[in-house]
Amino acid sequence: MKMLMLFAALCGVAMAVPFDSAAYMGESAPMGLVDELTTLGFTKLVEFIEIAGLKETLNTGGPFTVFAPTNEAFAMLGTHYPKNMTLLVNVLKSHVIAGKVMSTMIKDNMMSPTLMEGVPMRINVVTWWQTTTIGANGAEITLFDKMAKNGVIHGIEKVIRPIPLGNMMEAMEMIPGLSFTLELIKMAGLDSTLAGEGPFTIFAPQNIAWMKVPEKNITALKANKTLLAEILSYHVAPGAFYSTVIRPGTLITTVQGQKVLFNPKMCKKEGILYKFMNEAEVTLADQSVNNGVMWLMDDVFAKPMVF
């Protein structure tokens, strides 16, 4: 009788204590996003999250999807970390979207608003032979679907900077070195198109690129709006293209109808990979804006190339 009473008491205790399958299997239950980031080794990102006062929000709120730059990605910035607290908060928020986005849900040119108001996250998927590369605002995703109790983490290989703000025309207005290209775009009547929904990729010649063109040719372009629009349209492609996602040898069809060639070249002496479109060197690539991507060029595409 005493044995039966003891057995019943033990059963009552067992029923009162919830079954912890994670503990039974020797696994730890998922933690909050920030704690999981620490466990995964994203310690520099966690440091900035704590400095910015976002730990509580990202650890307990949500669900969120965090695109987490590695420690090496932050090291690539050198000393160019956001010093202004408002800017730091905005940069971090632009790496987080509301909701849980698993890799199986991702589609090419998928757009999701980030926690930074007015700044979207554009995700691109490129399949090359038997490999697929996925990028978030130009940062290649190298780690997928690490779960937390309030969201999911994807690791990326660079910090997304500058923050993608405004459309292509608004962004060019803020870059002094593109003032002449901007003037010609307006002259050709393409400004409303490039301020539109897109997405577009522009291979924008800097002012120094136009200085290499003979003055008589510039004069002729300004006098012939049809030709000017054709030349400029050869510098714009429908779609969002990032050098971090596309492969060497990729041909991109422009609005003008002809193609441009992504043509990176390795300098063996320096050990540096230089990016080229056709034979024009890229001085800055992968600058995200709300309706596409900007590449800055040190040359004007002289004429459509035949491939």
UniProtKB/TrEMBL annotation:
PROSITE patterns: FAS1. One of its GO terms (molecular function) is cell adhesion molecule binding. Residues 26-160, 165-301 form the FAS1 domain. Residues 1-16 form the signal peptide. It comes from the Eukaryota. SMART domains: FAS1. Keywords: Signal. Gene3D superfamilies: FAS1 domain. SUPFAM superfamilies: FAS1 domain. The keyword Signal applies. GO terms for biological process: cell adhesion; extracellular matrix organization. GO terms for cellular component: extracellular matrix; extracellular space. This is FAS1 domain-containing protein.
